[in-house]
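Researcher: We're teaching a course module on how sequence relates to structure. For the next exercise, students receive a sequence and then see the predicted structure as C-alpha cells, so they can try to spot secondary structure elements on their own. Here is the exercise chain.
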Amino acid sequence: MDNFEARLKSVLDSTANITTDFDLNPQFKNLATKTPRPAAVLVPIDVSDGQAKVILTKRSSALRHHPGQIAFPGGKVEAFDASVTDAALREANEEIGITSDVAQTLGNLPNHITVTGFTVTPVVALIERRFDERIDKGEVDEVFRVPLDFLMTPSNFQIQSRKWQGTERFYYTVPVGPYYIWGATARILRGLAERYSNGPN
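Model: And here is the predicted structure for the students to work with:
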C-alpha cells in the first residue's frame, strides 16, 4: 500500500493545465460568459479493506441541477471554509458521512471548469478505515465503489456525444456495471488516469 500511495502522490499536480467541459468542444468555449464560482469535490479512495476503490455517489433524482448523475461528493466553497480542502471534506461529511479523521488528503488535481459555471478543485484523499456511511437523501440516492485499477486504465474511457441545445457535443464517459459515469466526473477521472498510467511504476 505504501508503494501505491507514493505513486498516487507522485502524479498529483495541481499546477498542471486545467481541464474543462469544453476540452472536446473548443468551439463552444467562448460561450462561457460567467466568472466561474469556486467549488471543491473529494476524490475518496477507499483502502480500508486493502483494495483501492473510488467512492462515488449517484445524485438525488430530486435535485434541480444534474439529478441522477454520478458525481464525487462536493459542492460550492463557502465563505466560512478555510480552504478548498476544508470545503471538500465538509461536503463529503454532509453528503455521505466521511469525517476528516478517516480521510488522509494527498493533494489536489488540476482545477476543472464546468459548463455550469464552476471552477472545481478535486481533492484526492485515502480513506484508510471504515466510516459510518450516512447518506443525505436530499443530496444523494446511492453510494458505490469502483476499483481504482479500472478507473486508472485510459482505454476504459470512451468519447460519446449527444445533442444539447440543438448542437452535437462530445464528452468523456466510463461505463461500469449499471453506472454511467460521464461529464465533469469522467473528465476528472480521465485526467488522473492518464497521469497515473504514465507515472512511475
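Model: If you want an answer key for the exercise: The chain is about 20% helix and 35% strand. The two ends are 13 Å apart (CA to CA).
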